[in-house]
């Protein structure tokens, strides 16, 4: 029985060293925004770790005017998702590459209306967390961030 324990221990040590090495050798790339007006923002639009992309939250903001779109939660949801699509496109991806969404609503009562729009775009059904917060920046109704895999 002792040789089996030693063999198991040896295999576990090799696995731990391999995992440790893989984590140490993965580069982290902080991608600048594709939007000139956001070049000086204190965050990256996307951070790449291997084949995973962590996107900054997007609101229902028209980036040409830098204002939240009119029309309430559904129009803001559409705009936020279109903004996500723009960032994904810069990295050769689509919404089909999204594996996780985090959604922040200013009012949880907007959940059903938001979900009507969301389900039209995210047809692959990525994992999702949705919650309400007391406030969303720029007096918006929604912010969505995603993790995508290329």
Automatic annotation (TrEMBL):
The keyword Cell wall biogenesis/degradation does not apply. Keywords: Hydrolase, Signal. GO terms for molecular function: hydrolase activity. InterPro entries: RidA, RutC-like_sf, YjgF/YER057c/UK114. It comes from the Bacteria. The keyword Signal applies. Residues 1-22 form the signal peptide. Belongs to the RutC family. This is Rid family detoxifying hydrolase.
């Amino acid at each position: 029985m002792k040789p089996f324990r030693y063999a198991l221990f040896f295999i576990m040590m090799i696995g731990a060293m391999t995992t440790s090495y893989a984590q140490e050798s993965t580069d982290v790339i902080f991608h600048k925004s594709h939007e000139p007006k956001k070049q000086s923002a204190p965050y990256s639009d996307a951070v790449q770790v291997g084949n995973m992309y962590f996107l900054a939250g997007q609101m229902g903001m028209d980036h040409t005017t830098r204002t939240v779109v009119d029309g309430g939660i559904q129009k803001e949801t559409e705009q936020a998702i279109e903004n996500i699509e723009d960032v994904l496109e810069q990295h050769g991806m689509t919404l089909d590459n999204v594996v996780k969404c985090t959604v922040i609503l200013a009012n949880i009562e907007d959940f059903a209306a938001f979900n009507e729009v969301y389900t039209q775009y995210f047809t692959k059904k990525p994992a999702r967390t949705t919650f309400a917060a007391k406030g969303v920046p720029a007096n918006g109704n929604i912010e969505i961030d995603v993790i995508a895999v290329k």
